Amino acid sequence: MPKGEKRTDWRFRIAHREALIGCALAVFNIIWWYGFAYTLGSKPPEDYTYIFGFPAWFFWSCIMGFIVMVFLVYLVVKFVLKEVPFDEEGSDER
Amino acid sequence: MNWEVLVPLLALLFVIFLIGIWSNRKLKQSTSFLSDYFLGSRELGGLVLAMTMAATYGSASSFLGGPGAAYTIGLGWVLLAMTQVATGYFVLLVLGKKFAIVTRRFKAVTLIDFLKERYQSKSVVLISAFSIVIFLFAAMAAQWIGGAYLIQTVTGLSYLGALFLFAVAVLIYVIIGGFRAVAVTDATQGIIMFVGTLVLLIGVVIAGGGIDQIMTDLMTENPNLVTPFGHDGQLTAAYVTSFWILVGVGVVGLPQVAVRAMSYRDSRSMHRALMIGTIVVGFIMLNMHLIGVFARPVLPGIEVADQVIPLIAMETLPPWVAGIVLAAPLAAMMSTVDSLLLLVSSSVVKDVYINYFKPDANRAHVKKVSIGFTAILGVIVFLLSINPPELLIYLNLFAFGGLEAAFIWPVVLGLYWKYANKHGAIASMVVGIGSYIAIYQYNETYGNLFGVHAVTIPVFLSLIAFIAFSLIFKKEPYQF
């Protein structure tokens, strides 16, 4: 195929963008996780407030943190990621 | 002998065995033995891909060692475990499409194939194969010990007898099936793990009298158990945060995870796997470690931490449910061992033996060598597992750290930095592994250097070494 060179560039540009999105998600995840755990959690345990039976720091950091990440990944998969072909001109080694 | 628990467990092993035979029959029909045996022909769909990653990754440490540590340390260890949510999306997004495209172009079947093509260096291949063999041995031993503990707790067999049972089941299975069998049953096992942890969590919460009651009991026993700082207040923020490197983002450098990132069928499967993987990994990690903490008021005074999960399952659930639930960790360990065995034997047989000793080997010969070598490996690991250490989580984490220190930069920079070259890769692997082993030993004796996990500093050192050596020996940029 004559346009092989151009097509390669196009696929890698998308791949690079999506890798950066992965890093951004991880940074956000760390900040959320750390922020709630070590602010709310640093109080003396007697002063903890509880949400659904869990200490507030744990609820926000671990449980909500997980739910928020699932939601963000959903948004990224649904609206940002693009489908690209993986094979070179449709030829697989098999 | 606890037959009511044992029968569902054995039934599961049998079903897995059947799946192995079935996929072996498929194996005979295809044309490329190597690609099939080690990679499942790059045709994994989204669900299977996500589950196989979760099952490989969710190993004995997440089902026995991790919850055992949570039992001792409290909610602080659950916080630490939640750093693993990142693995669900990070690996697939970062290695992602570029890795899939490039490994197809290289016709790479293993991680080492990729490194070999990218860096064109025999030294890179040999160092990689060597570190995979060394570190994955440690990881495999951890799984076998975990499996043996579990069977021992359920059946009352001796440790040695239990170990033998586990080993035979794994070996027969992996030898007849190869990667496709591993991937397909991983999907089954992933689902068992997902449901099993949920059932067990509910059982423990009911047995403990509800979450409020459990938290009150923990507060009464030791208020530190509900803080992020561990039962003795020693779990520092710096140490816990350094686990983002070890079990969060650093997982990109694990060969057993990276090989999954080259086996998906198309970008659609990858997108689905991202979604499913994030949910499954996060859900299982959160539940299993919470179970560990909740088990404390329900069943106080368990001495061997690795037995917390089997004991609590048999305590809180009806026997036959316990049998099915305990199939989850057993499934996780089997699938991890399967994948690791394949990975180690692929490194030696394919990456070293065929590359450098017998490039013209025919199909029958390759097959004989692969299967024979896998079997020998299994026997060696069995012998190593006969005298186990107390807490297997540390053995497993040791292996994780070593592999990450070795591979993270050669893989990531090789993929995204055009000036990466073989000098950088070799320097990075040598510095990474060397400093990791040194710092690990230092931490064992003197406590954690800078208060962080042993993997943290080597990851930075190997990055510096990679960049410095690549630039010193700078040649023209690499074009894919």
What would you say about this model in short?
By secondary structure, chain A is mainly alpha-helical. Chain A has helices spanning 4-40, 56-80, and strands at residues 50-51, 54-55. In chain A, strands 1-2 form a two-stranded antiparallel ribbon.
Residue share in β-strands of chain B:
under 5%
Adjacency order of strands in the biggest sheet of chain A:
1-2
Regions of chain A with pLDDT < 50 over 5+ consecutive residues?
1-7, 90-94
CATH level 3 topology of chain B: Sodium/glucose cotransporter
Q: Which sequence of SSEs, written as H and E, runs from N to C of chain B?
A: HHHHHHHHHHHHHHHHHHHH
Rg of chain B is 22 Å
Largest interface, chains and sizes: A-B, 54 and 57 residues
DSSP strand content of chain A: under 5%
CATH class bucket of chain B? Mainly Alpha
What is the CATH superfamily of chain B?
Sodium/glucose cotransporter
Order of helices and strands of chain A: HEEH
Give your account of this protein's structure.
The complex is a heterodimer of chains A (94) and B (480). Chain A contains two helices and two strands, in the order αββα. Chain A is mainly alpha-helical. Chain A is elongated and about 60 Å long. The model of chain A is unreliable at 1-7 and 90-94 (pLDDT under 50). Chain B has 480 residues and is mostly helical. Chain B has a single domain (3-393), classed as Up-down Bundle (Sodium/glucose cotransporter). Chain B is 78% helix and 0% strand. Chain B has helices at 3-29, 33-39, 46-57, 60-73, 75-81, 85-94, 96-106, 111-119, 122-155, 159-207, 211-221, 237-248, 255-258, 267-298, 308-316, 319-357, 363-384, 392-416, 422-446, 456-472. Chain B is built from 20 helices and no strands. The model of chain B has no long low-confidence stretch (mean pLDDT 81). The chains are: A mainly alpha (94), B mainly alpha (480). At the A-B interface, helix 1, strand 2 and helix 2 of A face helix 5, helix 6, helix 7, helix 11 and helix 12 of B.
